[in-house]
Amino acid sequence: MTGTVITFYSYKGGVGRSSTLSNVAVLLARWGRKVLVVDWDLEAPGLHHYFGPSLSTPPDSGVIDLANDFLSGAKAPGKHIVPIDIGEGTLDLLAAGGLDPANPRRTHPTYHSRMQRIDWADLYAQGFATFLERCREEWTDNYDFVLIDSRTGISDTAGICTAHLPDRLVVVFTANDQNLMDVVDVAQRADIARDRLPYDRPPHMVLPVLSRFDGRVEYQQAEEWHRRCTEAVAPLFGNWLAKSVSEELMLRHLTVPYVSYWSFGEQLPVRSEQVPSPDQISYALETVAAVIGQQFDRTDLLADNRDAYVAAARSRRREFDLDLLVSSPRSAQVAATELIEELRALGLRADRSLSANVEFLDHPREPAKHLCLMVDGEVSRWQTTEAERFLRHALDPDGDQRQLFCVLTHGTDRAQLPGFLRNLRPLELAPRTRPIDVARELHDLITGRPSPAETPDREVLRQVAAVLRALPDEMPYAARFVLIEQVVHDMAAALDRDELSLMRDLATDLELLGKTRTDGERVAIPVHLRAGIDALLDRIDRRGQAFTE
Fold first, then answer.
1. Are strands 34-40 and 168-173 parallel, antiparallel or unpaired?
2. What is the pTM of this model?
3. Are strands 205-213 and 168-173 parallel, antiparallel or unpaired?
4. Which of 528, 453, 423 is nearest to 484 (CA)?
5. 197 neighbors 163 (Cβ within 8 angstroms)
6. Are 404 and 424 contacting, i.e. CB atoms less than 8 angstroms apart?
7. Which of 6, 71, 230, 460 has its Cα between 20 and 30 A from that of 330?
8. Contact, 163 vs 203, CB < 8 A?
């Protein structure tokens, strides 16, 4: 799996950027990720202060030596990375440059003169960008996360760190006007600069971290400043925050409190506070690390249960809500619904993604482990987008391969499929092929075991579930819902008594009640009735899964 490059940036100094990066790096390494930290704050390098006691071999070279590697004709970066021994996990350092052998707390006596001689614009004119791209490729091949500490302000080196190298940005700022005025502009300028590069880099996802925030004493003033900070950085959440989560709540989770004890020297509180309480600085740093570790994803879980979110980040195994997402155009909606019903009856968690649903495509979270494209005539542009997005993340962190499947409706010409689908063995809904046959084949491919034999009871449960799911959310008049509610109640009672034949008869009645023949005003289904239907469906699904175990 290709690693992720994340730059930690601040417009002003003294905001805790290097401290935040160092602590997050320790947490990610402790949680099983391979992490490289890169000190690109060349004018004021400092990461070696945080990790000095854990460096068995102080670095004798670093970032500035990449320039010498390039100028000497090297095709790849030299051996400038040194290990950091934190007792667990893989954490390495690419320092800004060599340290003084006589005093490893200081840079080498020749460092500043060597650094000042570097003309980054001239290096780029000579092709340094291509060399730097090879460096980046080597780092992302060897590490899950590459965390770059960038210098402040606007400069050539800051541009390298914010535009050229990273996949994502972490912008660290404090509650004052000097920081707030430019925190969003920095990200926008970085995206503009990326567009000029000859490399395929999507727009930044930006994580704003409000640092050194003291809300314990001047509570009203602190709340006012937190509101101002939220308003300032709200645009940065636009392309990754779950729509159900407010920017104000998210920023509270990303607020690192000021604790005077940790303001002295370069300390790593996450190494001392391994099980932090909510009032400790490591609690907030864990949350920041968890968002990074989960690739800015699943923020709805963070809003609901912060501890569960952090616990999930500690585990390398990705969890998906669904086993299979079925993508279909509207012309194949009926066939897709039938296929999904059969998959559910076989015990798979399946649902439909209706192609051309822009909101789904914009959502950063991947809901399903596997994707199935149902192609009706031709692959739609939206299905191509869904497939490309899926294939970019087709290997989960444990190396467990995620699969892309293709189901062709009758009459679809396989030869007309795009290349990425022609290489697959498509399944076909031919005139004599039932949806259950395709569902069984998908089940076997996904689970690696034969699908369970069909039984009459399972067939009844599948039919009943299909009728319940097909009920409309609106009716011409409220009295119809009263009748439906009674039938649903009787079906639940029949299920209690295991009278499946009665359930089948009631499903026939329910199917007739669900049919409407008017285009006039509609009444929405009562909330309690929808909840009752969902509860009954859940019971039926669990009963159906029992047949597969």
1. unpaired
2. 0.59
3. parallel
4. 528
5. yes
6. yes
7. 460
8. no
